[in-house]
Amino acid sequence: MAFKVGLLGLGTVGTGTVEILRDPAQRHPLLQELVIHKVGVRSLDKARSLNLSADLLTTDLDAIVTDPEIDIVVEVMGGLEPARSLILKALAHKKHVVTANKAAIARFGDEIFTAASEAGVYVLLEAAVGGGIPVIEPLKQSLCANRINTVIGIVNGTTNYILTRMQTEGGDFGEILADAQQLGYAEADPTADVDGLDAADKIAILASLAFSGRIKLSEVYCEGIRQIGAADIAYAEKLGFVIKLLAIAKRESDQQLQVRVHPTLVPKTHPLASVNDVYNAILIEGDPIGQVMFFGRGAGAGPTASAVVSDILNIAAILKVGRGQVTQADGTPLLDPLLACSHQHYCTIAPMSELVTRFYARFLTQDYPGVIGKLGTCFGDHQVSLESVVQAGIRDGLAEIVVVTHDVREGNFRKALDEIQRMTTVANIASVLRVL
Amino acid sequence: MAFKVGLLGLGTVGTGTVEILRDPAQRHPLLQELVIHKVGVRSLDKARSLNLSADLLTTDLDAIVTDPEIDIVVEVMGGLEPARSLILKALAHKKHVVTANKAAIARFGDEIFTAASEAGVYVLLEAAVGGGIPVIEPLKQSLCANRINTVIGIVNGTTNYILTRMQTEGGDFGEILADAQQLGYAEADPTADVDGLDAADKIAILASLAFSGRIKLSEVYCEGIRQIGAADIAYAEKLGFVIKLLAIAKRESDQQLQVRVHPTLVPKTHPLASVNDVYNAILIEGDPIGQVMFFGRGAGAGPTASAVVSDILNIAAILKVGRGQVTQADGTPLLDPLLACSHQHYCTIAPMSELVTRFYARFLTQDYPGVIGKLGTCFGDHQVSLESVVQAGIRDGLAEIVVVTHDVREGNFRKALDEIQRMTTVANIASVLRVL
Ligand SMILES: NC(=O)c1ccc[n+]([C@@H]2O[C@H](COP(=O)([O-])OP(=O)(O)OC[C@H]3O[C@@H](n4cnc5c(N)ncnc54)[C@H](OP(=O)(O)O)[C@@H]3O)[C@@H](O)[C@H]2O)c1
Ligand SMILES: NC(=O)c1ccc[n+]([C@@H]2O[C@H](COP(=O)([O-])OP(=O)(O)OC[C@H]3O[C@@H](n4cnc5c(N)ncnc54)[C@H](OP(=O)(O)O)[C@@H]3O)[C@@H](O)[C@H]2O)c1
């Protein structure tokens, strides 16, 4: 049997994908039954590292997603449009889809999965989160007996690289970002990474799978790492923490989830604390499995293509054994309930003001004896119980005060901060971070 | 639809399995379509923590595996016989099988998978390695596009617990084993764990999946942790290592694998070095994914039952969508080429003498100036190049000498040791360990 694959995109991931497809030795024998039928790109003139026969390449992507010969469309072009429209059109033409596009899935997952269900085809997306690290398929299949309670991930390699270097070198965010850009670890426009948007896309996808509901991306709280200073890294270190950009999804109650991305103080003994450089890791806590963690490279041509091609093979295996021969009343093939994303309702996400967490905050204040007392009283007035208040030093003639709270309601903490902000003795709230 | 499950065994894992099956809330909805049809045990009189209706329990296990109503047989009784015969009989009666029995699969995998292929049914075994940690399914599905080069695991919780305590407390093997037995972390008869046999079963299974061939268990080299002394842990620590019982499978060439279990010096910076206590982790290195690691609890009722029930659900999902409706010429359902273990040939395992590795060795010798020179010359004569030789101290009036080699052929190293053993100046080769 031969399964025909149409690729949309031949950039980093597309090239990695073709390289695996053309080199099946010592890989799964099913690879030999895959045929690259067409590859869609923007420009036919671009120099390519791969030696592809010219008649495979086309700029007519519409022709790929409607080609009656193609079984599986692989979307590795990225971006929102035309990626979204092409995926929907491929599904309408009853093609299975494999995609690495977290941005499109996080935003248009509802339309895309509804269209897939109606067409009786699969949309697989292992590459969209954690690069090659298996996490989508484990959530769907290997962990399906569990009640998932928490998913916590380091899912953005660029920010983890920057934070790791800030940690080891003691440098400031701006200079290390500039260096990371030079070295190719950060994009020229770093916004999606450093402002946490990419991580937010990914945790929205993971939360949707873990809690079997749809997630409105606009409800995912998202805070990046631009405001982290060398001082915060150093104080955190002294307190026994490292700072990581965490993407967190948590079942708060039967009705509500927390879904959020923000830099977080992580205890050094926590399994995520030692995940450094561009590595990603996803920690899942479920009942009755307890904690499991998945670790590896979250990006790059090889790891990402590993996930893309594995998804293609999983679909080829289904096609081969004729799964989908059982049909529903309207003739649509019945989809595997573990592999399809058939949930329809939206999860309710709790507002951040209701979050209960520990906080770390750093204040610059006038250097006189009553200040710590004033801060303490203000927090107390708002039911914010403190674990420690330390005058850590003097900076620019101001006293630097570091506060760590016990578990408190974020809403209460914010009200106290509002009041502190207005105190004439407080020059600056230099940083506010949550503690895991 | 309802899928009928027959359980063989209601001990630790069986009880955990029933607990999940009876509590589907917030778990995958497919759970609600599973029905426990029969549960086989040894004794009907035994007090059970579960309140199971009496007509479910039976001591007639044969009747379960031949019951025409049962779709899926779950073998969680353990041991070699009658487990093997019951599994084979279940397969002959075209029942899908889920098992947690690493001992039986490592020994009888060839018979069992051949019988499953002939019957056109699946044998799933996620629980057999790493408890709840997804590793079998990722190897079969999520990583299937890769050429796997290495699998290295900490796959035995008991030995990892003992070694971690030896590391943190500085105690000796014997006393910590006794304490571990008291605390329930080690069995009364600890042989299978501390002599590495359980880890050997597991790496044989992982190697078979990673390298798509069968493995003769008798060819798996296996060395336990009884001989590790507090002195070795302390010297390793000074050299920047921790000692872990590693199970290793490696592609040495197109023709040959290494498959081995032994205590190993692991650099403290290695991802496996910080896997402590009863936790397990499996590190897989593949092309093009690079390194990925899976971490979690490798045993216990909850984690193991998570894997067992997930396997049951995976089979139920297949049954539900009617996969297997495409049949071969003889009418047997065609099995999913990713999920079935259809490889027939045996892998060739290289003899240990051909292994190229670094070694650590500790000698007790007479305390006079020429001894280090004699050792060095002897190693040199056998092409064993040394990284360091240190007289580490005096023990019982003897000089304690610690040697670390560069990468050397194990055969050469052993010949040198034979010669050293016979030197009158050398009282004792106190320990020999490999270095990762
Ligand atoms: N790179 C990674 O490490 C990584 C990791 C995980 C997920 N992903 C995801 O994978 C996807 C692809 O990423 P990438 O890094 O491979 O991107 P890339 O290197 O920029 O490649 C994009 C490819 O798509 C083609 N393309 C883009 N827009 C097109 C259009 N409108 N019409 C026709 N062709 C178009 C480009 O054609 P030309 O070649 O002619 O310009 C190029 O071949 C993205 O969704 C990304 O988020 C990437
Ligand atoms: N425990 C773990 O953490 C763990 C982790 C991974 C894998 N596993 C594997 O899971 C399997 C089960 O382990 P377990 O710890 O659950 O064992 P267990 O607690 O000893 O339970 C064994 C069960 O099987 C029944 N049984 C045993 N031999 C029988 C026979 N000949 N006829 C009828 N019933 C028989 C026993 O019946 P009675 O109740 O009447 O005595 C008991 O219910 C083993 O293969 C083990 O290697 C266990």
TrEMBL record, chains A, B:
Catalysis: reaction(s): L-homoserine + NADP(+) = L-aspartate 4-semialdehyde + NADPH + H(+)
EC number from the UniProt entry: 1.1.1.3
Family label: Belongs to the homoserine dehydrogenase family.
List of residues binding NADPH: 102
Record-linked Gene3D superfamilies: 3.30.70.260, Dihydrodipicolinate Reductase, domain 2, NAD(P)-binding Rossmann-like Domain
Residue positions binding NADP(+): 8-15
SUPFAM superfamilies, per the entry: ACT-like, Glyceraldehyde-3-phosphate dehydrogenase-like, C-terminal domain, NAD(P)-binding Rossmann-fold domains
UniProt xrefs under InterPro entries: ACT-like_dom_sf, ACT_dom, Asp/hSer_DH_NAD-bd, HDH, HDH_cat, HDH_CS, NAD(P)-bd_dom_sf
A GO MF label: homoserine dehydrogenase activity
Organism: Phormidesmis priestleyi ULC007
Cofactor(s) needed by this chain: a metal cation
Domain of life according to the entry: Bacteria
Protein name per the record: Homoserine dehydrogenase
Pathway: Amino-acid biosynthesis; L-methionine biosynthesis via de novo pathway; L-homoserine from L-aspartate: step 3/3; Amino-acid biosynthesis; L-threonine biosynthesis; L-threonine from L-aspartate: step 3/5
PANTHER family: HOMOSERINE DEHYDROGENASE
Binding site for L-homoserine: 187
Enzyme active site: 202
One Gene Ontology biological process: methionine biosynthetic process
ACT domain: residues covered: 360-436
Keywords attached to this entry: Amino-acid biosynthesis, Methionine biosynthesis, NADP, Oxidoreductase, Sodium, Threonine biosynthesis
